Amino acid sequence: MEFLYLDEVDSTNLYGKRNLEKLEDKTVIVAGSQTAGRGRLNRSWLDLGEGNLYVSIILKPASIFDEKFANLTQYLSLVICKLIESYGLKPEIKWPNDVLINGKKIAGILSETVMQGNNFKGLVLGFGINISAKQEDVQKVVDKQATSLSIELGKQVDGTEFLKRLINLFFQDYNKFLERGFEFIKHEYLLRANFLDKEICVKGFNNTQTGIAKSVTDNGALILEKDNERFVLTIGDIL
Q: Is CATH 3.30.930.10 the right assignment for the domain spanning 2-191?
């Protein structure tokens, strides 16, 4: 794999999409800062300063799109959890792929697929992880609580070392995941899920759905139950 370091960029995902044709498979784009970082459902991802991670991975696993590729964000959320656990912390996953510690968000993930007609050109798997942000930095995230690895550990963490370990861990089982999809990680994903058996509200692009979160399907979709009816949601964010 190749690492591409940028001092500043609008967003690593946008850069990856613009330059997808000339970037090799498994290229890791790392930015010192982002001016227009983005999260899921068109939300922004705030740049909380130097030492935090703003990264996108270029992936070109096939010439034809496979539904399993959509679950790569959930695979990455599990990988991030496993690495954070090695620091002695207990992260959780909020469906579909947010990573939290003590109920506070530490990482967000956004995958974007690039198609040319019916041809799958690749995808850009982007993520932001708060590594070195201080308490006064995370307070800028006014709409929801946030934290960083350094805050939770009470000491500074080397972001470069964290990223290298993360990328190695990501590709360790990457091919196995591509073969089996979400079912390959379902058990471990559910062990870290913080939403099960709770009444939740899920916001999609144009609507919201409430109910009790019962489980996830073998494809990573959320199963909600309300008034003895079950609903399967493939996209959305838990409010």
A: yes
